[in-house]
User: What shape does this take?
Amino acid sequence: MLLHIIARGRIGRSPEAELVGRYMKRVTWPQKITELPDTGGKVPPAAPGSRTILLDETGEQITSLDLAKLLERWRDDGVREARFCLGAADGFTPEERKDADKAIAFGRATWPHLMARAMLAEQLWRATSIIAGHPYHREGQQ
Assistant: This one.
């Protein structure tokens, strides 16, 4: 299953870009990152059999394990692409919200878009490592 990050705003050569690159290099699943301008630009059309997750401050707060279980289920059900969308400063339109399969939040705090992208990259690596049985994730261990 392709993990596709679709993000508004250019990350350039920033510390956040280094973090995104570091984590995405560790992800063994197929992946793609599409950057769009803050306004305008076309979101690539969703291929049949894809799912869309919006990263949104009003989204559901899920654990890393929950994200891993969701991706594993989608993969096993034949989903071809999981699209993770990071919107512009004003968030998503009602139409984008309606068309999404899920909206998630990284806690109750508002995060800068570039930090949210780095956090997403880490969570994708964490989720795929959980699915692979890698010992990186230690949720619930003491």
User: Anything to note?
Assistant: The first strand starts at residue 2 and ends at 8. The mean pLDDT is 91.
